[in-house]
Structure formats: C-alpha cells, structure tokens
From TrEMBL:
Keywords: DNA-binding, Transcription, Transcription regulation. It holds the Pfam family TetR_N. The keyword Transcription applies. InterPro entries: DNA-bd_HTH_TetR-type_CS, Homeodomain-like_sf, HTH-type_TetR-like_transc_reg, HTH_TetR. This is TetR/AcrR family transcriptional regulator. Residues 71-90 bind DNA. GO terms for molecular function: DNA-binding transcription factor activity; transcription cis-regulatory region binding. The keyword Transcription regulation applies.
Amino acid sequence: MIAATALKPCDSMARFRRERQWSEARMWQAFAEHGAGLTNLKNPQRAQQKLKLIMEATFRLANQGGFQGMSLRQLSQQCGLSLGGLYGYFDSKEALATSVHRFIDHQFRAWLLPEYEHAHESQKLATLCRYHLYLSELMQPWFFFSYMESRHLSKQAKQQALAMSNQVDTLLLEALSKTGKSVSSPELEVSLIKHQLQGWYLRRSHFKQQGVAVDEYCHYLLQRLGIISE
C-alpha cells in the first residue's frame, strides 16, 4: 500500500490502478494472508493459484445455484482439486464464506480508508464514493457474493459483516456532514447513497449491457449528490 501522506486524488479508475499499483496478483497475495489466513507458506505462488481456482469456482457455483446449495465436493470437482486438497485451504463452507467478508474488510481498510483520511474535509464524501466504486469494480464477484450470502452466515460472521456495513454508514454520515450541505434527513440520505453504491456491483451486468463504465457511473453519482458540476 501507499502511505497516506503520498496520496494524490485519482479521478479515474485507470489512474487509480496505475498510481496505487493495483494488480490482481497483489490482490491474491493479500487474500492468501488476510482472507484465508495462510502465512509462512513454502510456495506462496502455488497457494495463491489454488486459492484463485477455489474462489472463482465458488463465485461461479454460487451464481448458478446459490452458495447454500453447494457442497464442498461439488466445489472440489469444479475447481479441479481433490476434496482433501480443498480441505487444506478451507475445512468448511462457513470458513470459506467468512474468508470473503474478512478479506473485503481488509481491502476496505488497506485501500479505501487511507484515501478517505487523507482527503480534504469538503472532498471526503466524493472520495468515499469514488474509491468504494473503484474497489467494488475491481472486486465485483467478492462484493456480490458478500451481499448475497451474508444472510446465511453464522451469528458471529453476521456480526462481523454488520460491523463493516455500519462503519461505511458512519463514514458516509460523517462525510456528508462535512460537505456544508443542508440535509433534512442525513440518515435517509446516507441510505440512498449506499443503495447507489451497492447498485454498481449488484447490477453490473445491466450497466455493462448499457455500455456504462465505472467512471461514468461515478461521475453521475457525484453530480446527483451535488459534489461536482456537469
């Protein structure tokens, strides 16, 4: 990651990827450590490749028939690993689902929070919206899975997911208060903003069919919020 003092605002996702040095390889490296909790690996690259196979198969099966209906045996067949090999990474579906929520929380703290904390007060809402959209674009399957499957988690995992959701609400409310705008119902405004942020990764296929890119969606949202002019 980049130190907050070195951050300069990015006004496009291409610039974000270039200047923040985002890469898929770095994402899988971070997931291995902070999502799956694998450390001191003899062959980190191989483990990351296996995790990629597992997670991509998980997202695919969850989209086809729902995560609840998926068995670990089906997953092992889909990702090309033996059941024993799969157990070497995740010993249960609960552990697998929890790793996704834990990883999104890590990415949020590693990529979005430094941008938010470094931003000028008047730009905190724009920064929060912009980088939330960038992160959910780059990690769309993760965000979609997290949203759709959160209701099936254990009580403890649900509490963790709820804590992260509440933190986003708190930051949005704080950022909204610093815009200088008079809002009759800040909590309702935050709910509407959050709904629009979620809409990007929940309806991505729709926007893709319409030819709408994340930068265009971001610009439209910030215009609607009165943060930027046309």
